[in-house]
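Re: your question from the hallway

Yes, I did run it. Sequences:
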Amino acid sequence: MTPFTYERAGSPAEAAATAARTPGAKFIAGGTNLLDLMKLQIETPSHLIDVNGLSLDTIASTQDGGLRIGALVSNTNLAADARVRRDYPLLSRALLAGASGQLRNKATTAGNLLQRTRCPYFYDTAQPCNKRHPGSGCSAIGGVTRQLGVIGTSEACIATHPSDMAVALSALDATVETVKADGATRRIPMADFHRLPGDTPHIETALEEGELITAVVLPKPVGGRHIYRKVRDRASYAFALVSVGAIIQPDGTGRVALGGVAHKPWRLRAAEAELPRGAHAVVERLLADARPTRDNAFKITLVERTLKAVLHEARG
Amino acid sequence: MLKDTGPVFSRRSVVAAGAMTAAAAMTSSQARAQNREPEPHAAHEEGPKVSQMKVRLTVNGSPYELNLDTRTSLLDALREHLHLTGTKKGCDHGQCGACTVIVDGVRINSCLTLAVMHEGDRITTIEGLGTPARMHPMQAAFVKHDGYQCGYCTPGQICSAVAVLDEIKAGVPSHVTADLTAMPELSVDEVRERMSGNICRCGAYSNIVEAIAEVAGRPT
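Structure:
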């Protein structure tokens, strides 16, 4: 790790202002991804702003029947919340499919969204990577790509966003609430929060310099069957090869978001209109623009089969 | 049951040998990560200077005040500064669980958190759970069921297992919990899933599960 100074934030707005005016500053909450990357000197902040004391660790009901999840609510506490388990089981299921018990205890809601979109070449500091060193090239393209993205990729990057939680939040139409360095607040829909790589894969979210996530808001429950199905190389504690998060209504309509296929949770409303016609019709639309590699073309078939299993379970 | 001190002391040489094997298998980046001292040339380079900070921790019931390089992980603070070497450094990246400790009642990877982030926290390590003479029921069960071979992952396994039973008792669901709205069961499947963040390269898993199941089945 490179040396850094450390401070505890006093308020969200103050933290945002400090982060914006201090070169090399980063927020730290759970730290489970940031410290991992700092040890490899992939992240080298010169100043850390610890936001853990900001009292953003509660889940409150909203006026329109939804939930406001504080940025610092741990993944464990969010998955275990009785309201989430009852009204948004997709979110509980997705969280519980991710990481390990120890990591979920420390990882926060905001931190989960802000974990780096990454691939094994991002971690290998001996190789070029456009995320680590913009313009240096992508070692994954032409490399071992079995785990990597099949859609929304670019010539600069084919990494996937590893969060299970984000897939559920995408399907649930969640909104990210933030405070900016000038104290102004804004709401960012999940669909716009994470970015596709394009030619700037090092910029992964819509957040501005210093902007701090304060909460994630869920709209009022939509009912239906909530299913999160994750396919991975071992039964627990592994990233998804593909995952399907779905909310299926009794009439066969619903929502579908995918993990493990793109730089962000992958969702397309036009494809959801095909749900009553079955998994093949949905995936044909959802992954119409896929550009898989030879090693990860299996993901297209795997998504369709996984969605088929999900729709079967939803009917059962 | 085995004698109180026997198995623990007879295992010490085995544990040390296991640590050496682990060290030999480390990659260079892990080896660098293990070196908590600044790089020798760091002082001559431009960039931020090493920053020191005071932090107060309560570890196994005793209060401590430490002056630490801000980069010090909770794991290194425990091992290198408080000399509580029961907590082990495996991967140092949150993948193996050897460093698991209990902070304010919750199990975490002590390698992936900074000591300065734990001002005022209460930390329990393997040394705080029990002693060779007065073992915690989970420690006794690991001995009885031979829930280890080299022993390197064992402190993390035991801290994790103790917290897992509390999590089940508190109704925290897991990936294999069938009904999210019901209390989770104390089943073998639940234990296996919840312990997946603790790797045992000797493969003592079946004995570890038996040890945890025995403690879980005990009336408390």
